[in-house]
Design brief:
With 368 residues, the chain is α+β, with helices and mostly antiparallel strands. Helix content is 64%, strand content 10%. Strands 1-2-3-5-4 form a 5-stranded mixed β-sheet, covered by helices on one side. The chain is elongated.
Length: 368
């Protein structure tokens, strides 16, 4: 059943109920009176209306009730099965007051409809109405719908609780890792970096040639310290105020302070986007500008944020030293961007441009 769309299931139920009502009406029709097209139309309409029960339960409740009253008034002694289905659907959707009011109205209207047909006296009309819509069946249909609605709500709450618990545990684990990294690595890397810089300074002060290995150790220490700082900031992201598209101009201004000619262009009409998309777009721009400043040897960088129907497009271009056709080296930053985008169901393209330089192009889906 999970592989079939709900609309198909509702349509199949509606056709079956309509067929059952029509067949029952034919079996109880007096051959001497001939076929009543109005009565059969009401029987079929009442059943087919159930196809829209999931989308519009209250209108379907009204339609099935009116059809039941109509074919009872036309002289068809047929149970109001379609109305019972509609009671179930309306109660499941949470319309309890409307459902109870409609049921009480039907209990009063069916005897009147049976008497209006002219085929029954008062006693027979009451008996026919009781047979057409037993009170116990009404209560059972309403109770079943309410029970299912409560079960679905409890399932949704349990799922939400599990997601919140998993998210909280992930946050706690991330902060634990950040503390461990800070306590175990930050001090050691800082010592290596300081010792290497002091050794380079002393060698130059004495007029000695600085060994290449020592310069490599100094540069590696600086890079490791920067990478560790960035990693700790990412791990502690939830401790800080959430950053998103509103903070992208700050990233561009900060890039300009390093001598990079950075520009920002906003395309399309800005709409609200989910928080995860908002944070991911900020991280893409942040990591891209950081890579431009560290590795690209670029003089200009262009950031474009495009709002499109159903998608947010983020693009960062530079005029750095990347050559067309060269395969990009998948560093930690690019891998992190790709993982963030893929987790949201988006697409990321990071590659050298044909005219030179590098481009990062991400499309993030935005639900309507």
């Amino acid at each position: 059943m999970r592989t079939v769309r709900p609309g198909v299931i509702d349509g199949a139920i509606a056709v079956c109920v309509a067929a059952a009502l029509v067949v029952t009406g034919l079996s109880k029709q007096d051959p001497a009176t001939g076929l009543d097209p109005v009565g059969f139309a009401l029987l079929a309409s009442g059943g087919l209306a159930l196809a829209a029960g999931r989308r519009a339960p209250v209108p379907v409740l009204a339609v099935t009730g009116l059809c039941a009253v109509g074919y009872q008034a036309a002289g068809f002694d047929v149970p109001a099965v379609a109305f019972l289905f509609a009671v179930y659907a309306a109660m499941r959707a949470g319309h309890r007051a409307v459902t109870v009011a409609a049921s009480v109205t039907m209990l009063a209207a069916l005897p009147l409809a049976a008497m209006a047909s002219g085929l029954h006296d008062t006693g027979a009309a009451l008996a026919q109405a009781r047979g057409a819509l037993e009170l116990a069946w009404l209560i059972a249909a309403g109770a079943a719908g309410e029970a299912l609605r409560q079960a679905e709500r409890r399932a949704e709450e349990a799922e939400r609780t599990r997601e919140e618990t998993a998210r909280r545990r992930a946050d706690e684990e991330r902060l634990h890792i950040a503390r461990e990294l800070h306590d175990s690595l930050t001090h050691q890397i800082s010592v290596i970096k300081v010792q290497a810089e002091v050794a380079v300074h002393v060698a130059r002060k004495r007029g000695e040639q600085v060994p290449e290995a020592l310069l490599a150790i100094r540069d590696a220490g600086r890079e490791a310290a920067r990478e560790l700082r960035a990693t700790l900031e990412a791990l502690r992201d939830d401790e800080n105020p959430a950053r998103g598209l509103d903070h992208v101009p700050d990233l561009v201004r900060r890039a300009r302070t390093t001598g990079l000619d950075a520009t920002l262009t906003i395309e399309g009409q800005r709409d609200d986007v989910p928080a995860a998309v908002d944070r991911t777009a900020y991280r893409i721009v942040q990591e891209s500008l950081t890579n431009v400043a560290r590795h690209a040897s670029a003089t200009t960088a262009t950031v474009r944020i495009g709002y499109r129907p159903g998608a947010l497009v983020v693009r960062v271009d530079d005029d750095g030293k990347a050559c067309p056709g060269a395969a990009p080296v998948p560093g930690v930053g690019l891998l992190g961007m790709r993982e963030r985008v893929t987790a949201l169901g988006g697409h990321l393209r990071a590659e050298p441009r044909g005219e030179g330089g590098f481009t990062v192009h991400a499309e993030l889906p935005v639900p309507p």
